Amino acid sequence: MEIKVRKAFFQDRESIGRLLCKLDNDVDWSRLFRSYWNLNSDWIGYVAEVGDRPVGFLGLIFSQRIIGGVEQKFCNTTSWIVEEEFSGAGLALIGALLKLRGYQIVVLSASEVVFEILSTLGFKRFETALRVIPWLPSKASRVGGGFFEVIRGADRLIDDLSAEDRSICLDHIETTCEHFLLSDGESKCYIVGSRIFKYRIPLLRIHYISNTEFFASRLRLCRDKLCVSSSAIALLVDERFFNGAKVDYSARWNLPWQRLSRGGVIDPVALDNLYSEYPILGI
């Protein structure tokens, strides 16, 4: 049977949604079929079909950002699924993806098999591990450090953000993200994350840190404020966010998937997890 690949649109929500539920029935897939910052009207990826039946899907999330004063276009992949009896649809979907021009393509959750395929096609790995930073409350962390505060909530902190961070905040108000502004009275750090559960344990996955030097040098205080404010028992932070700095009070967790990128000239440290499946799906 012939497999055809075409663009997927918002109106394909019902048919593709049934396919995505086979991937994970607990995820609210309807979130992928809404407009957040889509640059390409109402198309959201590629669907592989046999006749009128969807047998594969590769979701795409488009965004446009100013990084280092330069405008960059991004395409984050999400929710790649192919029915087992139509495995050829996987390569057909990748072929469609590779025809995209003018985008930095980012893959945040590639399996080992997908990693091997994409590596041969020019994709480069830019992350292998997370830092798990558990909350270990102590009297010293509660009273030490002088003035240090956290403001939580986009509506409360947005006026204190830079123009670039204000744009990020506005773009993510309708996602699963939570917004925090940490301050010691002299310097500030804007944090965007999502509260998630792993094995029923509440965690705060960090998607973006505006001031990594501030965060790393005041890690214990940042951890305490963020965990208490979000009712989480640990932070999950991509290791590259620390740019090689030593991370005390943490454990290294090798990712079971790979983070890959192709196209553009973005420094991997500048590749955060915003404008991706993480803030949209809350995973």
Tell me what the structure shows.
The structure is a single chain. By secondary structure, the protein is α+β, with helices and mostly antiparallel strands. The chain starts with a strand and ends with a helix. The chain has 2 domains: 99 residues, Aminopeptidase (3-Layer(aba) Sandwich); 127 residues, no CATH class. 24% of the residues lie in helices and 38% in strands. The chain has 9 helices and 12 strands.
Query: How many whole angstroms does the radius of gyration measure?
Result: 20 Å
Give the count of structural domains: 2
Mean pLDDT rating:
90
DSSP summary: helix tally: 9
- Helical proportion, percent range: 10-25%
- Backbone structural class: alpha+beta
The global form is elongated
Compressed to H and E, one letter per element, the order equals: EHEEEHEHEHEHHEEEHHEEH
Q: Unreliable runs, pLDDT <50, ≥5 residues?
A: none
Q: How far is the first residue's CA from the last residue's CA? A: 35 Å
Instruction: Report the strand count.
Output: 12
Strand content: 35-45%
The main pleated sheet reads as: 12 strands, mixed
Please list the strands of the largest sheet in the order they lie side by side. 1-2-3-4-5-12-6-11-10-9-8-7
